[in-house]
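so the lab meeting is tmrw and i was supposed to have these ready like two days ago... anyway. pasting both below. for each one the top line is the aa sequence and the line under it is the structure tokens. i havent really looked at them closely yet so no promises
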Amino acid sequence: MSYVCKILVVNFFLLALIASHAAAQSVEALLDKLIQKGVLTEKEAKDLKAESITSDNTNQVATSKWKFNDSLKSIQLYGDLRFRYEASIPPPIRVPHG
């Protein structure tokens, strides 16, 4: 693996770590602001924090809107997708002068 690839991989993992930490901080800041405004009580905020921690620790699979047969376990899409646009603009008509 080249030096540039190693740097890119390390930067990717650092950004992912920073983003997850920032999301946790923003949730706490939001809850604190809601407590200040009187929208939430301290108990409700603690309950929401505990709920978010437990939901983060569990590996939840998002439910899909598409329904497939139970015997179908996975789908793999491959290939390419191409778009084409062609503008058909006629040339301007030249009118001879005089």
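ok protien two:
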Amino acid sequence: MRAVCEDPHMVMRGGDLQPENSSRKHIGGGAIATIGGIALLVIFVAQNTQDVKFDFLFWSVTIPIWLLSVLMAGVGALIFFGIGVIRRHRRRSDRRQARRD
């Protein structure tokens, strides 16, 4: 059976007909994933507080292992993002060139 409503201010949510500006608030999947990720990061930081000596070329620094891990993950993410940008740029350039030919 299908419900039909003529009121333009009513919307279907979860199988129920509700006012468009309903006061029911839902937490989205992105918010849940963000909260979970932050919780895991806090646990990781709490468990990895010991210092480690990091040598790179002629630099040497002693930092907590959690900071080293987070920095290396950030560097990896930037490289991954940069490669994606370069690939998209090349594809767009190739498509533009193909349209001109």
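from a quick look at the 2nd one: The chain has two helices and four strands. The chain has two domains: 9-47, 51-101. will dig more after coffe
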